[in-house]
Amino acid sequence: MASSAEKIPSDLYPTLKITRIKNPNKFYAIPLLGFLVKIIILLPVYIVFAIYGVALFLILAINSFYILFTGKFWKSAYDFELGFMRYTAKLYFFFFGLTDTYPGFDFTIHDSYTLDIHYPKNPSRFFAIPILGGIVRMILLVPYFIFEQVVSTGGFIGVVVSFYRVLTKGEYPESTFELARDSVRIREAAGAYMMGLSDSYPSFWISFNHKNIKIALIIAGIVVSFGNWTNQDFFHNQYEYDSKYRDEKPFYVPNLEGRDRGIRAL
Fold this sequence. Notes:
Helix content is 61%, strand content 3%. By secondary structure, the protein is mainly alpha-helical. It has one domain (15-231).
């Protein structure tokens, strides 16, 4: 997942290993067109993904009661949740150009990467309380969600910048490849925590090979993310302002019709 010079935290999850793509598809690297084509060909995958999402919701609900009554994690739920994480990773990796292998419609990874997480042996009964456990996890993850947004935005900017290198030299830069990979792992870690696959808070660790490039991209991610949050607040406030005054009576406008007739008579 990282170079041998880096020390990976022992509590890092999920375990994600991927080999840098050797001959990336140049067509997919064409600005806008490449993304547009991917969005179109991924439409069937999005439909299957939505179906899996509904099934995941039901499995999470059942697993909550299973943990409450038995103190164990339902093995079928573990298998499905891990499979769902792998499917999500396949989708992200293909869209970001880290692989040119189409995600397909099953949970099996048919490519040169792996994603895994240990079976939870002693799941928390408190976190398994329906609704309450999920709300508490979500509140705890607020700082991590902000971190995820920043790294993911910086990673996506790096992906877009990398297309020039793919088009001109036929290779994916290691620096942006690693940051995009780590952004996917961070998303998966947040998902794993929310699904109860781990009760340990997810790690903020990312690889800092090519440190200067990654710091620059993360700063760009902060700027863009902050801009998005500011715009959302502006439009939200504008909507509230419009809603407040939409139904109020307009300002009084005097009837000048009689005065105009008098002026014309003079």
